[in-house]
Amino acid sequence: MNVSFHLLELRFRVLKPVNDLPHFHGAQWSALLRHLLRPHLPGGSSLADGGILLQSVETGFTAYQVGDPIHLGLAVPAPLFPAVRAMLARFTTSPATSGHFQPGVTIALEHAVCRICGGDCFETPCLLDHDHLAEEIDLLRQRDQFSLELISPLRIPRPGGAKDGGHAFLDQAYLFGSDRSAPLERLAAKIRLHEEETGIETLTIVGGAVTWLDLPYGGKDGKTLGGVVGTLRIAGRPSTSLARRLVLGQYLGTGKNGAFGFGGYTIPELAETAKVLPLTRGRTLLNRAATVESLRGALSRLPNSSPGPDGLTTGDLTRAG
Predict the structure, then answer these.
(1) Whole-structure pTM over 0.85, yes or no?
(2) Cβ of 320: how many Cβ atoms within 10 Å?
(3) In this predicted model, what pLDDT tens digit does every residue of 140-190 receive, in sequence order?
(4) DSSP-derived 3-state class of residue 129
(5) Residues 6+ apart with CB under 8 A from 290
(6) At CA 220, angle to CA 215 and CA 225, rounded to 5?
(7) Residue 1 pLDDT grade (very low, low, confident, very high; cuts 50, 70, 90)
(8) Exposure b/e, 19-33, CB count within 10 A at least 16 = b
């Protein structure tokens, strides 16, 4: 298997407050990276043309304060890696841009980590190969059931003849419809590989829950991109070739709009055997919510001092510090 991708986790630090971010940041990151890499992209048009895929793991954060960390995942094809590495080396001194994320103005790049070896991508860049995935592939082949957690919007057109009443993409109605194998075949066929390989054998969707997200992009003109997020429970043992494809999809994604970070998923049952380092948030949503400043602010906005189930009033909490 010749994958020829570098997997990176970029770690930034906030220099000035970043406010009014949308729920999902993929479009903002895509615009910035497209601007910085334009001279090196085929046709100079989009990240998708060069096969660069991003994973915006900070979904849900709508603002950052000075000093906050921000993490971003990138999958970079080997031919474009020298250009990406050069761009990252001069990131903080790059020409000014507009938007939320501005090099040297609102954010600075602190580390570019290779997810394969854990080292600095400037010193030890590694290519993803079969050895890095072998244990996950073997474990997946042995399981009778597993899950696909759709962690960013999955945007895959329905196959010909399956569009119904304005439903043009894989959604809840199609994924949990009468044919529980066809959606999986569609998902596997759209995994971002340079191989032409399909065939789901006997895998079927036996449960789960998903919801459709419409995400704004492109400013104030009302444009949105939509896809499903959630969990699919899968029954059946995949063949070696299909297991390899599904495992690799965790790192390259599937479906449309990969340059925006769409189509990311994980197989949680494989987490303990994975050799590729998982992407992380700079800070979790819980850590952000549980700061002293956030808790004090929430306390000050409570409408009255009525006690909760614990019997404590707002006055009790204020006196307790």
Answers:
(1) yes
(2) 7
(3) 999 999 999 999 999 999 988 788 887 899 999 999 988 888 898 889 989
(4) coil
(5) none
(6) 20
(7) very low
(8) eebeebbbbbbbbbb
